[in-house]
Amino acid sequence: MTPAIQISKLDKTFQKQKRALDCIDLQVNSGEIVALIGPSGSGKSTLLRHISGLEKGDRHSEGEVLVYDDAVQKSGRLLSGIRRKRARIGYIFQQFNLVNRMTVRGNVLLGMLGRIPRWRGTLGIFTQEEKALALNALKRVGMDEFAAQRADKLSGGQQQRVAIARALVQQADIILADEPIASLDPESAKNVMDQLADINRQDNKTVVVTLHQVEYARKYCQRVVALRLGKVHFDGPVAELTDEVLKNVYGSSEALLTSRTDTDTAQSSIPGAVDYGTKALARVG
Ligand SMILES: Nc1ncnc2c1ncn2[C@@H]1O[C@H](COP(=O)(O)OP(=O)(O)OP(=O)(O)O)[C@@H](O)[C@H]1O
């Protein structure tokens, strides 16, 4: 088994008082699809942000994050080559993070930025091959007929499929999806989860997806990691995710019920999430 993500002794304290991550040790192997669950505020988004280096762990700690044996951060410092490392990680957000005024195709092309020379990205110059790749990715998620449309004219489910297409053209090895279905109706949620599962199976991409709805974790993921108060509270095969475990994770049967039926539309706490240099690329659309 090849480790895709290795996290050891990762601590994160916000504002010198609240420990959002508490000595996290976690390994995700290449080709796995892992659900990250836990109550609101348990640290799920914070953990994903640390994996991609969008957030740094505590200084003076031993915390370390490696992606395919390449250190992303250590002791609260990002290591050199972060742009190259981030290019291996596709990020999908609850609120899609598309550039509204750009076309669907332009948004998908943004996924290329980590792999093309900076000057071409800045000028929005893409080769025919790159444009074809973007169209293929849109076909794959059933959105090619919308290629020329502005992103903000799409429904939430459609926008999320475009965000998945963007991650596809990035050709990332790892997809981190942070509550990708939290704002979607059940049909769109199923569609988006089907796409993620397909990318995992067909393309052998490693997927880590945070979910509020435990039933989706049960249906789509082989392994579940549950956080509680910034610690890994459960890590195992989905078959071992009993009601008893869930009660311990969520604290009460009432909270558990909420986690199962939740159609939560709350904003996820991801400040400054877009890391695509979108300003320079606005003209792509
Ligand atoms: N930028 C920040 N500044 C201060 N505190 C933060 C920041 N980001 C997260 N936190 C705190 O860290 C803790 C973990 O937050 P995080 O968003 O990771 O939880 P979560 O499990 O993803 O929650 P949810 O399911 O509601 O999205 C929370 O107590 C949150 O208030």
UniProtKB/TrEMBL annotation:
Fetch the InterPro entries from UniProt.
AAA+_ATPase, ABC_transporter-like_ATP-bd, ABC_transporter-like_CS, ABC_transpr_PhnC, MetN_ABC_transporter-like, P-loop_NTPase
What is the organism of origin for this protein?
Oleiphilus messinensis
Gene3D superfamilies membership = P-loop containing nucleotide triphosphate hydrolases
What is the recorded name of this protein? Phosphonate ABC transporter ATP-binding subunit
Q: Which UniProt keywords apply?
A: ATP-binding, Cell membrane, Membrane, Nucleotide-binding, Translocase, Transport
Gene that this sequence comes from: phnC
Q: Which PROSITE patterns match?
A: ABC_TRANSPORTER_1, ABC_TRANSPORTER_2
The record's section on Pfam families has: ABC_tran (PF00005)
UniProt-listed SUPFAM superfamilies:
P-loop containing nucleoside triphosphate hydrolases
Q: How does it sit in the membrane?
A: Peripheral membrane protein
Please give the Gene Ontology molecular function terms for this protein.
Answer: ABC-type phosphonate transporter activity; ATP binding; ATP hydrolysis activity
Q: Where is the ABC transporter domain?
A: 5-254
Does the keyword Cell membrane belong to this entry? yes
Q: Where in the cell is it found?
A: Cell inner membrane
Give any Gene Ontology cellular component.
plasma membrane
